[in-house]
Amino acid sequence: MAENPAQASEPTSESKDSVSIHFVRAALSGLDARGVDRAPLLDGAGIPASLLAHDQSRVSAESFGALWLAIAAAIDDELFGLDARRMKVGSFAVLSRACARAEDLRGALKLAVQFFNVMMDDARVSLIEGGDAAALEIDEATPARRPMADTIFAHETVLIMLHGLMCWLVGRRITMDRASFAYARPMWWAEYQSMYANDLRFDVPRSRLDFDARVLAASVVQDEASVREFLRDAPHNFIVKFKDRNSWSAHVRRRLRASPPSEWPDLAQIAEELGVGLSTLHRKLDQEGVIFRDIKDSLRRDLAIDRLTHSTVSVAQIAGELGFAEPSAFHRAFKQWTGVRPGDYRRGEN
Question: In whole angstroms, what is the distance from residue 198 CA to residue 179 CA?
Answer without folding.
Answer: 8
